[in-house]
Specification:
5-stranded mixed sheet; 2 helices; Aminopeptidase; alpha+beta; about 25% helix
């Protein structure tokens, strides 16, 4: 598996290419906060850990850039819940 997660800023998504398919974590960026809105993993890649690898790589880049995260996407929210060492990236939501 290719472990290189890239940030396609033009399409506002993190991407992970595997076996000719692209898994993507779509986001919005505003005032230093990345809101993950949707994660897509092609059916051909399901059950292979591609989504987890994608989110981990995306969060590593978010951390390196000094940004915060809002996990609107249920997959991202669940992944962070299972990996508390990334919980420090979560932006406290007001309301």
């Amino acid at each position: 598996m290719n472990d290189v997660v890239s940030n396609n800023k033009a399409r506002r998504r993190f991407e992970l290419a595997v076996d000719g398919h692209v898994a993507a974590a779509h986001y919005e960026l505003d005032a230093g906060v990345v809101t993950f809105v949707h994660t897509e993993v092609p059916a051909e890649l399901g059950g292979k850990g591609v989504g987890s690898k994608l989110i981990q790589g995306a969060l590593e880049q978010v951390r390196a850039d000094g940004l915060k995260v809002i996990a609107q996407c249920p997959f991202v929210k669940g992944w962070i819940g299972k990996h508390p060492d990334y919980a420090d990236l979560l932006q406290a939501e007001s309301g």
